[in-house]
Amino acid sequence: MRATTLHGDRDIRFTEVPDPVIAEPTDAIVKVVASCICGSDLWNYRGENKITPGMTIGHECLGVVEEVGAAVSAVRPGDFVIVPFCHCDNTCAHCRAGAQSVCENLGFTTSGQAEYALVKQADGSLVRTDGVPDDALLPGLLALTDVMATGWHAAVCAGVRRGGTAVVVGDGAVGLCGVIAARQLGAERVVAMSRHEDRQELARRFGATDIVAERGESGEAAVRELTGGVGADYTLECVGTDQAMKTAFKVARPGSMVGFVGVPHGVNLPVNAMFGRNVGLYGGMAPVRRYLPELLGLVLHGTIDPGPVFDLTIPMDQVAEGYRAMDERTAIKVFLQP
Hints:
Blueprint: E1 2-8, E2 11-16, E3 28-36, H1 41-45, E4 55-56, E5 61-68, E6 80-83, E7 86-87, H2 93-96, E8 107-108, E9 116-119, H3 122-125, E10 127-128, H4 138-143, H5 147-158, E11 165-169, H6 173-184, E12 189-193, H7 197-206, E13 210-212, H8 216-226, E14 232-237, H9 242-251, E15 252-260, H10 271-277, E16 280-283, H11 288-300, E17 312-315, H12 319-327, E18 334-337
Helix pairs in contact: 5-6, 5-11, 6-7, 8-9
């Protein structure tokens, strides 16, 4: 099959690789119908993480089940499915507690930007739709495989409920989906911290009531002013850098929780400030399968539409252009068509 492969710093290619094969009876192979590039893929693309040259990349996809292992019974060939980026059996003790992203049989999508993807623990992971969805729904459904579920996890971990003010640190696809989540979960006021006009506009479309364009101390001061000096009731950290984490703790009100979902890179937690101000930290890798049924219903009923986070659509064989666009911040998130 053809797949997106990474060969070095900013060296993305669309090449021939071996087809995935059923290795375990709980596996399934999915023919990819839609895929995308994630902001977290850029860490590998930029050389921030150690890679194996020639490795496949991409963890977000929708598709049609092509083949299943002998133990798979919940899906069958021909089913249209949503593929959560982290795979789980959905039955172990951790899954039953709502922590599917630390399943005892955890797996990951590793060739989502390809013609076919291998899914581990297919029965516990894959979520079927009722028939093949209209093309217009594909962007919104694709967002559920990671960024919408991840933004939702940030809001849940921050404790968002009816009333109060939520502040979202980060204006990438996850942060923008965090705006949707905070609004849907009931925050009366949603402040999006964003320096980019196109992302500010989309944040407002998703339900942000206020925009803070400043960063660092100026941004923190702007949030304090917006909240009458109190700070955020709920803070969503959706970046993963040390600066973003520091900002999140600075804008959080005493006694509140920071929900964090940004993949940490060089983060040093301000433990003394957390202790002194009674500000907690809760989050991590999103248990996508936990949220999928609810989020799928919200998208299908038109209650939310995270699809507009995709602002560039290109053929998958032009994936290198998509990476370049996201790296240069000329695109928020790139939708890939096989």
